[in-house]
Amino acid sequence: MATMSASSMNLNMIDSNFEVDKLTYEIFSILENNFLFGYGHTENRTNLVNFPLKDAKPVKHAAGKVRILCIDGAGATDGILAAKSLAHLEACLRRKSGEANARVADFFDAAAGSGIGGVLAALLFTRGKDGRPLCTAEEALRFLTDNRRRISRRSGILRRVLRPAEKLFRKTFGECTLKDTVKPVLIPCYDLVTRAPFVFSRADALEVDGFDFKMRDVCAATSADPSSAGPTEMLSVDGRTRIVAVDGGVAMNNPTAAAITHVLNNKHEFPFCNGVSDLLVLSLGNGESDFNAVKSPSGFVRIAGEGASDMVDQAVSMAFGECRMSNYVRIQSNGIMANKGTQAKSCKTASDLLSISEEMLAQKNVESLLFKGKKVAENTNMDKLELFGGELIKEQERRKTSILPTVVLKNNNASPSPSRTSSATTLSTLSSTS
Q1: Pick the CATH number of 64-334+348-399 from 3.10.150.10, 2.30.22.10, 3.40.640.10, 3.40.1090.10
Q2: Where are the domains of the chain?
Q3: Which residues contact 252 (CB under 8 A, 6 or more apart)?
Q4: pLDDT in tens, 22-76
Q5: Which residues contact 216 (CB under 8 A, 6 or more apart)?
Q6: Enzyme catalytic residues
Q7: Torsions phi, psi of 90, nearest 5?
Q8: In this predicted model, what pLDDT tens digit does every residue of 238-268 receive, in sequence order?
Q9: pLDDT tens digit string along 146-193?
């Protein structure tokens, strides 16, 4: 009994007198993530020897903020508004950083895209032959404008037989798989086999071979319109997982909530991200369709998807609370300019859509308020992109002198983790595997 009392006293003395050295804890965290778990991305290795230990003081958000890009499905502009937004953002990042060859992917830690937004994310984050992202934002915009009719919804027996989009994706992405992305990506579809959403994820692909898919199949799946070309049947690279996919917009037109949930729960790659205050999120819409102009079943599906996107925006905005003004930006047409959605859907050429998208970017930005609907902000959508670009660069510069790794990306050679906390895929998809 005396021994127990003495032990209790000693523990109390330790608790009251011993202050854990925060810097030591941070250093051990780095060692743990880089060596114990086998994550060794060169961008995250830090020179601990030269770090000035004397007078080191804890700093709020010392590990920085994880930067997430989210892109909606087609909307009224067939993805052109989001692509145009990213072209402007990339130009801003190059101008402000002084890096003439900077890419969007250099300034984000994760990306999510649904439908045509998923195709856009794949273009910007798939690794090209030179090791850099496959496309600049301007090249991705040109890809969408040049191939809009091959990708967009058009019915007809020839489309079902020829499947021009799938041939286009095969030519563009070749043999690249989800593992061949420069940063984590999340691209949803709806699986008709399991009757559930399926999220293609780089994290899952690195964990389990049965979740690695060719990027050309991922793009075909997330953009497959069931009312025109029909569903896309596909197999994982190892042949174990079978998916019969339709448009990701059917279940997840706005992937922002899924992306945030993935990052907050993926402690292997984002070890110090504990809440929304540790995030910088850019969510891109693609214009809203005119409900009165919808006359087909597929049109009503699109309207439903856009409505769900607005609900996600409201929910995410409320989740960010007080930090939503600085940490969360949503770019979307605000509906003030009359009939812009109708004009966009009646456009015959890509140049018309580009013009409409430019006008949407010049609109006043709309912000969701906590339990108060929406309000028109003072800044335009373009202004918001410029301001957000500045925040991305600040975070990039902060990391150059930080001891803590904000992101610890798994590489292709890392062994699977004991518990798959990085998984973004629903458990129901396991029934698709053999």
Answers
A1: 3.40.1090.10
A2: 64-334+348-399
A3: 114, 188, 197, 199, 258, 308
A4: 444 454 444 444 433 334 443 443 333 333 434 444 444 467 999 999 999 878 8
A5: 166, 169, 170, 172, 173, 174, 176
A6: 114
A7: -65, -40
A8: 999 999 998 888 889 999 999 999 999 999 9
A9: 998 888 655 444 444 447 788 999 999 999 999 999 999 999 999 999
